[in-house]
Design a protein that fits this description.
The structure is a single chain. This protein has 13 helices and eleven strands. Helix 2 crosses helix 10, helix 9 packs across helix 10 and helix 11 runs antiparallel to helix 12. The strands form four sheets. The protein has a five-stranded parallel sheet with strand order 2-5-8-1-9. The chain has a two-stranded antiparallel ribbon with strand order 3-4. The chain has a two-stranded antiparallel ribbon with strand order 6-7. The longest helix is centred in the C-terminal third of the chain and has 17 residues. The chain is about 45% helix and about 15% strand. By secondary structure, it is an alpha/beta fold. Pfam families: AAA_3 (PF07726), AAA_lid_2 (PF17863). GO terms for molecular function: ATP binding; ATP hydrolysis activity. Keywords: ATP-binding, Nucleotide-binding. This is AAA domain-containing protein.
Length: about 325
């Protein structure tokens, strides 16, 4: 897994030219990339959500499209349209921005549910169906979405089916005092921080090879059982209406394998699962008190479950590694 580790370090150094600090958040972003997943960046305005997403896209030599989601955005604005060419008298297809390999869905919750639903097929099945014709998307394909959880005017909450498509949901948070000072120093020297200042350091072939290698990371049977036990505990918890689905357990498995490869390891540790549990599962929980969903209550429930279920011992892991 050394090649995956080196690729990740190269991308992290490149992103660090624009993004100050946020090492853990960058690790999560790269984990989603290596696991062929999508990311929802959720935080207040001005914390660098769009800049982080654009910095990753600029570091990859992949086609990139940014879509500014608004209430009047239509599904055809994303998928594309068939138009009549008067010169040859035939209909032609003009692909929309979803046919790029890296798609930034900026302020995704400002689009109507009808427009949001046009992302479901492409995020899960990597294809787009238009007028009875199905067109596959190029690999790798990744959606980076941002949303502001504070401003509710003119927004449409993402439905559970949409949230479940995101491998990871994360918050950037405010920078520390030292990071804030470094941001100001860089701004004073360069005028403003721009994602365009990063260099393209990874090709599509390198990313695809790294994704395939991540799928070969070994995980002990007892750790697989540990993931299932955690999921079952969310389904039977008194405060949850919907627990973690099989898709959620598969997401945690893929993310754990990618995170292990990111660290240069060919095997998953219990700490990998525990480190990724909240960003991979919190947004998939549906609580009985719906108004508490997304308020941090889900994180407390998962932390409580994680503390109550014993982690497999080292001896058990050694006997169960494949």
């Amino acid at each position: 897994m050394e090649s995956v580790h080196q690729l990740a370090q190269k991308l992290k150094r490149n992103i660090a030219n624009v993004i100050v600090g946020k090492e853990h958040e960058v690790d999560l972003l790269l984990t989603a990339l290596l696991a062929s997943g999508h990311v929802l960046l959720e935080d207040v305005p001005g914390t660098g959500k769009t800049l982080l997403a654009k910095s990753l896209a600029a570091s990859l030599s992949l086609s990139f499209q940014r879509i500014q989601f608004t209430p009047d955005l239509l599904p055809s604005d994303l998928t594309g349209i068939h138009y009549f060419n008067q010169k040859d008298g035939e209909f032609h297809f003009r692909p929309g921005p979803l046919f790029a390999r890296i798609v930034l869905a900026d302020e995704i919750n400002r689009a109507t549910p009808r427009t949001q639903s046009s992302l479901l097929e492409c995020m899960e099945e990597r294809q787009i169906s238009i007028e009875g014709k199905t067109m596959p998307l190029a690999s790798p394909f990744m959606v980076l979405a941002t949303q502001n959880p504070v401003d509710n005017q003119g927004t449409f909450p993402l439905p559970e089916a949409q949230m479940d498509r995101f491998l990871i949901r994360m918050k950037l948070g405010y920078p520390s005092a030292a990071e804030g000072l470094e941001i100001l120093k860089r701004t004073a020297a360069a005028g403003r921080l721009r994602a365009e200042d990063t260099a393209q350091t990874a090709t599509a072939e390198e990313v695809l090879e790294a994704q395939q290698l991540c799928g070969q990371v070994s995980i002990a049977d007892d750790l697989l059982g540990y993931i299932v036990s955690l999921a079952e505990a969310t389904r039977s918890h008194e405060q949850t209406m919907l627990g973690i689905s099989p898709r959620g357990t598969q997401a945690l498995l893929r993310a754990s394998q990618a995170y292990a490869a990111l660290q240069g390891r060919s095997y998953v540790l219990p700490d990998d699962i525990k480190r990724l549990l909240l960003p991979v599962w919190t947004h998939r929980l549906v609580l009985r008190r719906r108004h508490e969903t997304g308020s941090g209550h889900g994180e407390r429930i998962l932390t409580e479950i994680m503390d109550s279920i014993p982690v497999p011992s080292e001896k058990e892991l050694e006997s169960g590694v494949k």
